[in-house]
Predict the 3D structure of the following.
Amino acid sequence: MERNEMLNVALPKGRLGEKVYQAFERAGFPAEDVLSPSTRKLVFENPAAGVRYFWVKPSDVAIYVERGAADIGVAGKDILMEYRPDVYELLDLGLGKCRLAVAAKKGFTDSGDYTLRVATKFPNAAAEFYAGKGRDIDVIKLNGSIELAPVLGLSDVIVDIVETGATLKENNLEPVETVAEISARLIANKAAYQFKSPVMENVAAALKGALV
Ligand code: PRP
């Protein structure tokens, strides 16, 4: 089968990606060795089922799909909010549920009369959230361990992913407000959708069935 005839699927590497792949498998689209711990391969295909999977960094899935290197992929709503890729969102998989939230040191209240320093991995989503409230902020873009910022006085608040809340708690922080509810979404390349929509919609429907 030619590359263009197969459905090219970008999966997010990691725990969420494993759950996502298992849903594809249950939906009738398995491929050999995808979850094998002993392989370093990144591409797996099953010509009979018409699928080819790639493991990519979760934050890169939308880039592969937007540029057409993958036809479909699975990305967190947080990434879609932050980078606004020009893709179709076909399905909410309901996996990887968490929220994007503002958090601060316990007892913090925003008096509103100074420029709020916001540390985050999601500068665009944070800027948009505060612009909607008419609040002046200074965004400090970090790449990880965001919870350290208010502890060390680098920022007043953070905008970050909260799943169980354990990371906040163990660093004496608390959630202040929710920016958005997050879950994994099935996304599609717009041009590929024009000629592969039947197979994409078929995969989306089968996935939906495999997730209930
Ligand atoms: C994410 C997020 C929080 C943590 C939240 O971090 O940025 O730090 O998970 O989970 P919890 O509410 O269940 O404690 P990640 O593991 O992606 O690492 P990072 O901070 O280095 O990005």
About this structure: The pocket of PRP is lined by residues 144-147, 160-167 (CB under 6 Å). The first strand starts at residue 7 and ends at 12.
